[in-house]
Amino acid sequence: MFPLQPWKKATSTVGLVVTRGSGCTNVMAAEWTYFVAREPPHIAVVINEKNWTAELVGLGDSFTVTLASSGQADLVDFVGGFSGRDVDKSTTSGLRFEPGSSVEVPWVAGGVAAFECVAVAELDLPQYRQVVGEVVDWHETVPEPAPLVKHDGMYHLGIPVERVAVVAAAGLLSGGRTVRVCATGPVDDDLPFGIRLDALDGTTVELGGYPCDEYGDLLAEIEVPEGIAVSGLTIQVSRPGLRSAVVRLARPHVES
Length: 256
Description:
Blueprint: E1 12-13, E2 15-21, E3 24-30, E4 33-37, E5 42-48, H1 52-56, E6 62-67, H2 73-81, E7 97-98, E8 107-108, E9 113-125, E10 128-140, E11 148-151, E12 153-156, E13 167-173, E14 178-184, E15 193-198, E16 204-210, E17 218-223, E18 234-238, E19 245-248, E20 250-253
Parallel strand pairs: 13-20
Antiparallel strand pairs: 1-11, 2-3, 2-6, 4-5, 5-10, 6-9, 7-8, 9-10, 11-12, 13-14, 14-17, 15-16, 15-18, 18-19
């Protein structure tokens, strides 16, 4: 037993999960809601085994998930605190449903986006059950509201993180003097990465600029010039406006 509650260190967007059963429509707040595949998109929600929702959704069943907006914090608190066994939560003040387009289950309006799903997988966990739904339709709110971020408490999404440094790694490929260099360091323009070799004897070789890929990253294979000792070689990777990365050459890279 953990003396603390380590799950509160995680960060997620709360999902408003809607299910139907026994002639009723139920909605719950799922703190652990995540995308787990892109094409086709799949969403996983983790449900306490004691929750009524756990009885209402199984393999092949339809459900919807709305990623809650920060303006829905009070709604999330309520539907996450009361069970549908105790009260018909479809009557909750401030809750507005929209009809599903591809499933017979409505979705909660006012969130960042809503997803109509069909359950395709389940995983039993201690005290919980994870349900994975394939997204068959979805709806977005325009303009998009700020998401509700759960990190123990509920928060607004913060300001974007400023990226200030190049991060790189390099390794010698087996059987030669070829070095593979990988780096990240996003900037606004497709500016090239600069690579410099620094040998132990003080020799420095500027290798010029190397283009980034479609994601703004670098993956380059370079030949160490003759006369430059590979052992102890240091590689500096730079990009305009960012702090450069300096890495020591690793042992030969083995494909796996």
